[in-house]
Amino acid sequence: MIALSLAEIATVVGGQTYDIPDPAVSVTGPVVRDSREVAPGSLFVAFVGERVDGHDYAADVVAAGAVAVLASRPVGVPAIVVDDVQAALGALARHVVERLGATLVALTGSVGKTSSKDLLAQVLRRHAPTVWTPGSFNNEIGLPLTALSATDETRYLVLEMGARGIGHIRYLTGLTPPKIGLVLNVGTAHIGEFGGREQIAEAKGELVESLPADGAAILNADDPLVRAMASRTKARVLLFGEAADADVRAENVRLTENGQPAFTLHTPSGCSDVTLRLYGEHHVSNALAAAAVAHELGMSVDEIALALSEAGTLSRWRMEVTERPDGVTIVNDAYNANPESMRAALRALVAMGKGRRTWAVLGQMAELGDEGLAEHDAVGRLAVRLNVSKLVAVGGREASWLQLGAYNEGSWGEESVHVSDAQAAIDLLRSELRTGDVVLVKASRSVGLERVAAALLENHTEGEVSGR
Fold first, then answer.
1. What gap in Å lies between CA 314 and CA 334, rounded to an integer?
2. Minimal CA–CA distance to 438: which of 360, 334, 337, 386?
3. Which distant-in-sequence residues (6+ apart) come within 8 Å of 184 by Cβ?
4. Residue 463: its pLDDT value, please?
5. If you count Cβ atoms within 10 Å of the first and of the last residue's Cβ in the chain, which end, N or C, has fewer?
């Protein structure tokens, strides 16, 4: 964080100081909510959770080097006490970004936020010092913590914004007002909470509504609900996609023998060839989104193409490909899942597995509401249509519909199986995998299928991890 004294912070957040011998002492280290991340000069933010109360760690974090605690009650060590810790954290983030000379870039979408953010961060950091959201740290707590990690040297601040309802993104843009807003797509992720795609579009569009007149809205030309958001912003609009009228577009899209996308990138300043290190054709759209933002910020098409071609995955369990010494390839995409990302991952699996036996180890897609069972059935059917060799559906009722959809689509019989839990899947795969097989592991985060990928890689540590 940029250096601020405890007295300044107390003023910004409207707090009272307790047990602070010298209010002129500055926070020079990171602002953190996890006591394990405290470093000398830190400010520790004490949240009260369902299981853990951060206030209980106050003495420990100060002993570890934190200069103070942002708290909702006195804790017997240096503290700034406020009525609402979350609101105070947001106010501090707003104050810091207003003092920064950085350009704020915010992005949202139903699918691909983290992958696109990771690509964009790797492209922009070649151009100038860049700070970005770690992992999926994209909510009302993670976003201000990311913003507070920027320093005086930061030129670009890339912020992923998630939403689970109308008004969420409006709140986040109020904390960190972006100059550039990127909307990737409107899908069915969290549709059970929103009620429909139109409501999701309403929520995602809050990002472009927040942009200033001298800002830029980067919109997906291939998604009608996103393209329509052009009418909701006073900022300049730049379109990306494979549509002929997109300002930044891809032509001659193809997959390499390994299932990695290649294409010719066209921008208003020229064209250049790109071959991604990531897996699956769905990453073309993510790459175009990053390219459009980079173009808006003044990077040349050759700079952008080179950066995209060298970029990997910065976040865990997102199409994380590891080849074991015995020739079995594990694709760990277990961080999250929705119908769109499931379809994309299955297509990527098939592209990677040409001439090899392919396994789709799939679990529940959460928060789909009334459409949930039908969506699981459809994914199972798609696995058959794509000629995936083996489907292993893991879990309860939703998983049974994955398996049933596959069975009804192709009468697979033994080619699809429903197992009760991750351990059962591990046991099955360990007994049946053979050299050359490609295994995709994917489900919503709550299912925890990353355990399957981890177990399949145990005692195979010499393998090569790609796409990272």
1. 15
2. 360
3. 107, 108, 109, 110, 111, 112, 113, 116, 220, 226, 285, 286, 289
4. 46
5. C
Question: What does the block give as tokens for 89?
Answer: 């954290």
151: tokens are 């320093």
Integer-rounded Cα Rg, in Å, for the chain is 23
pLDDT at position 465 is 45
Assign 3-class secondary structure to the chain: CCCEEHHHHHHHHCCEEECCCCCCCEECCCEECCHHHCCCCCEEECCECCCCEHHHHHHHHHHCCCCEEEECCCCCCCEEECCCHHHHHHHHHHHHHHHCCCEEEEEECCCCHHHHHHHHHHHHCCCCCEEECCCCCCCCCHHHHHHCCCCCCCCEEEEECCCCCCCHHHHHHHHCCCCEEEECCCCCCCHHHHCCHHHHHHHHCHHHHCCCCCCEEEEECCCHHHHHHHHHCCCEEEEEECCCCCCEEEEEEEECCCCCEEEEEEECCEEEEEECCCCCCCHHHHHHHHHHHHHHCCCCHHHHHHHHHHCCCCCCCCCEEEECCCCCEEEECCCCCCHHHHHHHHHHHHHHCCCCCEEEEECCCCCCHHHHHHHHHHHHHHHHHCCCCEEEEECCHHHHHHHHHHHHHHCCHHHEEEECCHHHHHHHHHHHCCCCCEEEEECCHHHCCHHHHHHHHCCCCCCEEECC
Residues 154-210: tens digit of each pLDDT = 999 999 999 888 999 999 999 999 999 999 999 876 666 766 889 999 999 999 999
Q: 220 pLDDT exceeds 50?
A: yes
